[in-house]
Amino acid sequence: MFKNSEDLPRAEHYAYRFKKYCKLVGVKTIRFHDLRHSHASLLIASGEDRFTVSKRLGHVSTTFTETIYGYRFPDKQNSITSLLEATFKKDLKKVCNFF
Fold first, then answer.
1. pLDDT (tens digit, 9 = 90+) per residue, 4-37?
2. What would the 3-class secondary structure string for the chain be?
3. Widest CA span of the chain, in angstroms?
4. What is the dihedral of CA 65, 66, 71, 72, to 10 degrees?
5. How far, in Å, CA of 31 to CA of 10, rounded?
């Protein structure tokens, strides 16, 4: 987002202004970089997958994204277990009805 260029302000300029405006409007001051974390968290809460979030943030790999945000992704183990149990029960009924 912020490239070092002669014609653009440096990232520190935006961070300074962000902090200034937070104080001005009376909201809790957070680091400018924390907006990036909020963005990632909102994507995950909206159901986006690891690959999409990783690419959106410009990470080299999904492994890096999982290292930072892995705890925010929903645990799929419970839903997989429920799916397997439902399938097993359905198949068991078919077998029991067969005899």
1. 556 666 778 888 888 999 999 998 888 888 888 8
2. CCCCCCCCCCHHHHHHHHHHHHHHHCCCCCCCCHHHHHHHHHHHHCCCCHHHHHHHHCCCCHHHHHHHHHHHCCCCHHHHHHHHHHHHHHHHHHHHHHC
3. 81
4. 40
5. 15
User: How far apart are the C-alpha atoms of 79 and 87, rounded to whole Å?
Assistant: 12
pLDDT in tens, 49-95: 889 999 999 999 999 998 888 888 777 666 677 777 888 777 666 66
Rounded to 5°, the CA angle 59-80-54 comes to 5
Residue 43: which of 68, 22, 21, 25 has the closest Cα?
68
Say which residue the tokens 């790999």 belong to: 61
Closest CA to 5 of 53, 13, 90: 13
